[in-house]
Every structure is written in C-alpha cells, then in structure tokens.
Design a protein that fits this description.
This protein is an alpha+beta fold and 271 residues long. The protein contains six helices and 14 strands. The strands form three sheets. Strands 1, 2, 3, 4, 5, 6, 7, 8 and 9 form a nine-stranded mixed sheet that branches. Strand 6 and strand 7 form a beta hairpin. The termini are far apart.
Length: 271
C-alpha cells in the first residue's frame, strides 16, 4: 500500500525553536473554521496546550462536532494510522507502537475496534526534529481508501521540551490529527532519565511510564494495519506490565469476542 505516492506536504510554519502557536491562527490558515469550536479550551487551565473535545476525549473539537459511528470510526482510525506510519517512514523518523495500539498489534496487527485513538512513541531527538521542521504541517493523502483526499496535520506541543512529569497537563508531546473527523494519534517522547535511581539506561515519558532502554531497543520490524511499523523489542513484557497477563489471552472484552477463524475482534451478538 504505497500511500506516499499520493503525499503532498504544505508547511504552515517551520519553527526553529518550536515557539507556542495560537491555535486559532493555525486553524484559520488551513481553512478549518466552518463549524463551532467544540474543543474544551474554555474549561481547561490556560497552561494546557491540547484541548480534547467536549463530546469525546479522543476527538479534537476544532475539527469535529460529534463522534463517528462504529464502522466510520474504525475506517477513519485505520487511515489515520496508515498515513502516520507512512509519513514518519518518509521523513526518516523512528516511531513505535505503544499502549493500546501495541496490544491491538499483539492480537491481530490491527487497532482494537473499541479504541478511538492510537498511541505511538518517538525518541527525544526525533521530537526535536519534528518540532523544528514539521510542526503545523499539513499532509494531504489521496488513496484508494481516501478517494476524495484528506488532510492530516502534525501539531507539536511547545511544552514538549519540558520533560518533567510535574507538567501533567502537557503529557502529550504531539498529535497527528485527521482534520475531517477530529480523530488523532497521541505521540509521546521516550527520554533518557539520567538521574533515575535505577541507574543508566532508564527511559521515561511525561505520562509516568518508565522502562529500561533494552525493553525498547532494538526495535522490531512488523506490519500494523497493512503498512510497515515498529514495535519495542520486549513487547510482551511491556504489555504484561501495563495491562496484566490476562490481556494477552482474554478473548472477550468491551462487548467484543476474538474470532480465531477471522482473526479479528467482532461485536457480541445481542438478543
């Protein structure tokens, strides 16, 4: 699936120091102000950068007024993940699946259908690169699954350079956002913690997750949602630690059952 054949990049602002961007100005510049702003900005503390929608925490209310239906959301998330992974590959950015997305990979190399977002990580050097050269860039994709074309925006939180976990309102360092549906991928930075009591090689994220670098590197090559992806070296240990051993074998969850013949999660039949 050669998504990059249809990739067009429009850089709105290339920042050498990733200075704060006024959200409203950026949105006007990509022409996405044709509906009411449904973000939670008005009720959030002023120091919080990303504002989730008022109707669903996994949607960006600047681009959507309501959540998608079940099938529409599944399709939009697949395209969201595919375009992100292909874009990062084209830019030479090393990124890997984490959290719920990694668990989805464990089961069938797909997003779990009850998920409404995706999670990835990058290194600190990669985040600085994205902030410097691609912050607020719009990527246009036109593919067989997106025949009308769709814009995705890469937005970097200017607070990304503060790696302290006390900045709990800005734990998400960047997002890859579907400007039509409002769905997004959370991008967090895995940083080396040079003062960690466990010694050298410890990495941490602003959201509180910590792990030794040997759990992440060397990354493993794989496939996720039909495109090339990377996962941590000790993926099973990371999943068991975060979700428990049962998450790797439990075949009923969130009103779905795992069909081993189809190799997919399917909704339970209701009577």
């Amino acid at each position: 699936m050669l998504l990059n054949r249809f990739l067009v990049v429009t850089t709105l602002c290339s920042l050498s120091t990733c200075a704060p961007i006024e959200h409203g100005d950026a949105i006007v510049r990509i022409g996405m102000t044709d509906h009411e702003d449904m973000s939670g900005k008005a009720g959030d503390p002023p120091q919080k950068y990303f504002h989730e929608s008022t109707f669903d925490p996994h949607y960006d209310g600047r681009f959507a007024e309501k959540a998608l239906g079940y099938q529409q959301q599944k399709a939009a998330l697949k395209n969201l993940v595919r375009t992100f992974l292909e874009t990062m590959k084209d830019l030479g950015i090393e990124t890997w699946l984490m959290h719920g997305s990694l668990l989805g990979w464990w089961w069938n190399k797909q997003i779990m259908p009850w998920d409404s977002d995706a999670d990835v990580q990058v290194t600190e050097a990669s985040m600085y690169f994205l902030a410097t050269y691609y912050n607020m860039s719009v990527f246009h994709y036109k593919t067989p699954s997106l025949p009308a074309g769709r814009n995705y925006i890469l937005e970097v939180n200017p607070n990304f350079s503060n790696g302290d976990q006390s900045d709990w309102m800005n734990v998400i360092d960047a997002r890859w956002i579907d400007t039509e549906s409002g769905l997004f991928i959370d991008i967090t930075t895995a940083r080396y913690n040079l003062t960690h009591p466990a010694g050298e090689g410890m990495m941490s994220c602003k959201d509180g997750h910590e792990f030794r670098d040997t759990y992440i590197f060397p990354l493993r090559d794989t496939i996720f949602e039909g495109v090339a992806a990377k996962i941590p070296y000790r993926y099973k240990d990371l999943l068991a630690k975060e979700y428990g051993d049962r998450s790797l074998t439990l075949k009923e969850f969130a009103n779905h059952m795992f069909d081993e013949v189809k190799m997919e999660w399917v909704p339970k039949l209701t009577t």
